[in-house]
Write a structure and sequence with these properties.
This protein is mainly β. The protein contains five helices and 50 strands. The strands form 14 sheets. Strands 1, 2, 3, 5, 8 and 14 form a six-stranded antiparallel sheet that branches. It has a six-stranded antiparallel sheet with strand order 7-6-9-4-11-12. It has a five-stranded mixed sheet with strand order 16-24-23-19-20, with no helix packed on it. About 40% of the residues are buried.
Length: about 700
């Protein structure tokens, strides 16, 4: 915050001239000087300079540089030249040669010929040259705010250097500007107050104040310089624009880390112009207040601590999430969480965060379980600790316990990909290939649903539902009904599957009877652990395979890369669409809220819970009943996300037998295991045990 001001000006000073003009002093040292020597510990011809940019000078166009001033510490040269340059290494535009009379304070000189400021200048450098006979002379005074443009020096014409990195202020050099176009800045700071009577040491103390504009210029983003016990601790830039004769009530916070002991603390404030131009009445720009600071209390709390999954594979890590709350004055940085599994060895883990009073931080913690060698339940006890060893005033809310079950069984969770696609979409070939290859490689884990839009197989209400979850382009997909569109290409889908939690708390199976005037859809949910607060519902989707269509193909010709053989085909391809969505129940914006689809709230391991729905056959648009499938999704009613799913597909056994590379005949099969004519083998078919795309 100390470096917000690009130009810092001292208070307006009045000098006796024939015109009684006001001198506007431009500097970076806050109009201060320091008697302490700020070393340039080299002997030789020394040059020092400060720099003003075009933007700074443009505000003063129409005026002129009429005076130069420099202050020295307890030692000083006997002679020097002060100068003004447009180029730091160029010729002097104006100069004052001083042969004697230099003192250890401000030395001010009037130019014989003032230098006009036109507003077109790119730069002005104000500096001085003098001889430093011995390295121990140290003729430099620096004070106020450290600014990179106020700290340049060189010795014996060598490369210019900067002392800004030392953070000891800026060179005590200033430029006096006079004229009839000095900006008319006049604001005041008043009514400083704070809501509390006491605050904790280390707390951010909130203040309010009123800034009033008495001048003719807009006050734009004023700066409040905040000091604690006389030491500047921060500059706060306010996002305010205050017109002439108006005021703004503002708020800001002041850190108190500099306070080392409890007691009454003095807070003082100064309002500054962001453009660096001084105020006409600076005495009205300051205000202050005394506030009591106490030894702050240490009070953290753990809330909402839970495992991301209660069922995890034996030997892997348990992921735990929760929230840390700082309830009192002391700011906490990088607290620790101590945890133990089944009462075993305590391990401490640092949590990277910094919290002031009332702030919260959501953490995640990965707890290894490799010390547990047998499957079964585990209990993890957690405690939040202050890193510095301080005692918490309410230690009970620093503790939490989570439970999970380690299993050595095969992963049971499936991933559902609901893809937005259409025959008109040339890039949607990527989704066709992605869903097909995922189904082929992960038949026990992946379920694809192709939701068409804008073609003869469109399902408008389903499309609207996916759009609400974040589909913003085609092809796009929703994974397990988690908000946000996912690229349905094979590589992305495979990576998503591998990153998915492998276990679900409930197994599910799906059955369907596509006969008669009503189709019976049935889902059976079997919990693998007891669930006391279940909040699940079932969603059924009927899909159809082998729907003939003509697909636009932007991969034609191979310019867009390989895409499952489509790159070898034309820009219009006859295909048999698979997994096409035909019917959804329940439907609507929030289908999981339908009561008829809900599962019980208490579910016991070993029991089976059923949801059945009879859909009129007339409600399901389809071409061939033999190609219908049914998918049952178990959905979390609180989040709408799919926790597990199953697919009823009576042709699955036939597909597996065809895909097994046993036959070397020239027979052609579709993916249903049905022998077809080679002439009708559009899209993906099986020949000699291999996939072929035509």
């Amino acid at each position: 915050m100390k470096k917000i001001l690009s130009l810092l000006l001292c208070l307006v000073a009045f000098v006796a001239t024939s015109k009684a003009q006001t001198v506007l002093w431009l500097d970076y040292c806050n109009g201060q000087y320091n008697t302490t020597q700020r070393a340039i510990a080299e002997a030789g011809e020394v040059e020092v300079a400060i720099h003003f940019t075009h933007d700074q000078l443009a505000k003063l166009a129409g005026n002129e540089v009429s005076q130069l001033s420099m202050a020295f510490p307890s030692t000083h040269p006997s002679a020097m030249t002060m100068w003004v340059r447009s180029d730091r290494d160029g010729e002097n535009l104006r100069e004052v040669q001083v042969a004697s009379g230099i003192v250890s304070k401000w030395n001010t000189y009037t130019l014989d010929t003032p230098l006009p400021i036109t507003g077109e200048e790119q730069d002005l450098w104000i500096g001085a040259s003098f001889t430093q006979k011995y390295a121990s002379n140290k003729f430099i005074s620096m004070a106020g705010t450290t600014n990179a443009e106020g700290c340049y020096y060189r010795v014996d014409g060598k490369e210019w250097k900067s002392k800004a990195s030392e953070d000891i202020g800026s060179l005590c050099i200033r430029m006096g500007v006079t004229g009839d176009n000095i900006p008319q800045h006049d604001m005041s700071l008043s009514r400083v107050s704070t809501a509390g009577l006491t605050y904790g040491i280390g707390d951010q103390v909130p203040f309010t104040a009123r800034i009033t504009n008495h001048g003719a210029d807009d006050v734009v983003n004023p700066i409040v310089r905040c000091s604690v016990n006389g030491t500047v601790v921060t500059d706060v830039t306010l996002t305010e624009t205050i017109k002439p004769n108006e005021f703004a009530d503002v708020s800001f916070k002041v850190p108190t880390e500099s306070v080392t002991a409890p007691g009454i603390v003095s807070f003082t404030f100064e309002a500054l112009w962001a453009d660096g131009v001084p105020d006409t009445h600076p005495e009205n720009n300051t205000d202050g207040i005394n506030v009591g600071l106490v030894v702050a209390l240490h009070d953290l709390a753990l809330t909402n601590v839970h495992p991301t999954a209660r069922l995890i594979q034996l030997g892997t890590s348990l992921a735990v999430e929760g929230t840390i709350v700082n309830n009192n004055f002391v700011a906490v940085q990088n607290p620790q969480i101590a945890y133990s599994i089944n009462g075993g060895t305590v391990t401490k883990k640092s949590i990277s965060c910094k919290l002031s009073q009332g702030e919260t931080f959501d953490f995640s913690l990965s707890i290894p379980t490799r010390s547990i060698t047998e499957a079964g339940p585990v209990t993890v006890d957690l405690e939040l600790l202050w890193r510095d060893g301080s005692e918490d005033v309410t230690p009970d809310d620093n503790k939490a316990t989570v439970k999970a079950i380690l299993t050595d069984s095969k992963p049971n969770r499936r991933m559902v990909c609901e893809e937005a696609t259409g025959s008109w979409c040339g890039w949607c070939v990527r989704g066709i290939v992605g869903l097909h290859d995922m189904t082929e490689k992960y038949p026990e884990q992946f379920i694809g649903i192709a939701v068409h839009n804008g073609d003869e197989y469109a399902h408008n209400s389903y499309t609207s539902y996916l759009t609400g979850l974040g589909i913003n382009g085609y092809p796009g997909s929703i994974i397990n009904r988690q908000p946000g569109s996912v690229n349905p290409g094979f590589a992305t889908l495979e990576a998503t599957l591998k990153n998915m939690a492998p276990y679900a708390e409930v197994n599910v199976s799906c059955m369907a009877d596509f006969s008669g005037s009503s189709y019976a859809l049935r889902a059976e949910a079997s919990p693998v652990i007891d669930i006391d607060n279940a909040n699940y519902a079932v969603v059924f989707v009927i899909t159809e395979d082998y729907l003939a269509g003509v697909q636009s193909n932007y991969y034609s010709g191979g310019a867009a890369g390989e895409m499952g053989g489509f790159e070898k085909l034309g820009d219009k391809v006859k295909v048999d669409y698979m997994d096409v969505a035909r019917f959804v129940w329940p439907s609507g914006d929030h289908p999981e809220t339908t009561a008829a689809a809900a599962l019980p709230t208490v579910m016991q391991e070993g029991l089976t819970y059923t949801v059945q729905y009879n859909v009129p056959a007339s409600s399901v648009t389809h071409k061939n009943i033999e190609n219908l499938n049914c998918i049952a999704m178990i959905v979390d009613r609180a989040t709408g996300e799919v926790v597990n799913a199953a697919k009823f597909e009576k042709r699955l056994e036939g597909i597996n037998s065809v895909l097994a590379p046993k036959s070397k005949s020239n027979d052609v099969y579709n993916l249903a295991g049905q022998r077809i004519s080679p002439a009708t083998a559009n899209g993906i078919s099986i020949q000699s045990g291999k996939k072929v795309l035509r």
